[in-house]
Specification:
Oligomer: single chain
Shape: globular
Strand content: 5-15%
CATH topology: Rossmann fold
Strand order of the largest sheet: 3-2-1-4-5-6-7
CATH superfamily: NAD(P)-binding Rossmann-like Domain
CATH class: Alpha Beta
Distance between the termini: 23 Å
Structural class: alpha/beta
Length: 287
């Protein structure tokens, strides 16, 4: 892939994994479009969404502080028209797009409850819109830019929940859909030297997890073993620069395993372990 300044779009980057990925890419000098809805601490949240810290402006500033160029873009990933305008802006301002990280997700507070899905709010299912469909729309808009330049990488942030029971059926369906989407997109993008992969982080120390740790002693005890939000960004940067990237296109890959192959450690120097044995393996068709 190109050695020129990388231009990346990271969705759902106000906080959590998206923010960490954006900062990690910025630390390698990338221009990162930091995409999300949260403009300030008092930006209204959807019904059932947790109140968590983080804004697109804070995240963009952190990208710039890390050595890149952070560009905050307000975009509701539930709105196709706003996604279309996002990619028009990227092409107009930067003239290229090297990496798209499909990360945004709507996570309703009911999702992590232990009661059956039919007793939860129907709004839990909104993750199928912001968490699956929006990533199809984003990829649909990114692909023509990458095809024209004959290079690029689309990364879907998925999880072990694609193959094992985790949270809620809607959550599992969204993650499994991301794996299959990458597999199918890769086939059509391959002739144009554009890769599509699905990436499984481990358990990540996000703001939401930190919030849970204050309520659940077992989570707090394990915090030291979790991945940092930046870890996946380090892996994605290495993936982009892998001369054999196209051989991985279409696959579902575990971030911790890739990190070992690339010799990448987390920001605190630890080597996160794969959860394959305890939580499951990607579907054989995508391995």
């Amino acid at each position: 892939m190109s050695e020129s300044t990388i231009v990346a779009v990271v969705t759902g980057a106000s906080r959590g994994v998206g923010r960490g990925i954006a900062i990690a890419l910025g630390s390698h000098g990338a221009t990162v479009y930091v995409v999300g809805r949260t403009l300030s601490d008092d930006t209204p949240r959807g019904a059932g969404e947790a109140l968590l810290p983080g804004t697109i402006h804070d995240a963009a500033a952190a990208v710039t502080a890390a050595g890149g160029c952070g560009v905050a873009v307000a975009c509701d990933m539930a709105d196709d028209a706003q996604i279309v305008e996002l990619f028009k802006r990227v092409e107009r301002e930067s003239g290229r797009l090297d990496i798209l990280v499909n990360n945004a997700a709507f996570v309703h507070n009911d999702m992590i409850g232990s009661n059956p899905f039919w007793e939860k709010s129907l709004a839990v299912g909104n993750i199928l819109d912001v968490g699956l469909r929006c990533h199809y729309t984003a990829s649909h808009q990114a692909a023509p830019i990458m095809v024209r330049q004959k290079s690029g990488l689309i990364v879907n942030i998925s999880f072990y929940g694609a193959v094992t029971r985790f949270h809620d059926p809607a959550y599992g369906a969204s993650k499994a859909g991301l794996d299959k989407m990458a597999f199918d997109m890769a086939d059509e993008l391959r002739p144009y030297n554009v890769a599509a992969i699905s990436l499984w982080p481990g358990i990540v120390c996000t703001e939401r997890v930190e919030q849970l740790a204050e309520q659940m002693a077992e989570v707090k005890e394990q915090m030291g073993t979790f991945e940092s939000p930046q870890f996946s960004g380090r892996v994605i940067n290495a993936l982009y620069h892998d001369p054999d990237l196209m051989s991985l296109s279409g696959k579902t890959l575990i971030g911790a395993e890739l990190a070992r192959q690339y010799g990448i450690q987390d920001i605190d120097g630890k080597q996160p372990g794969s959860l394959r044995t305890s939580m499951g393996s990607p579907h054989p068709a995508f391995s």
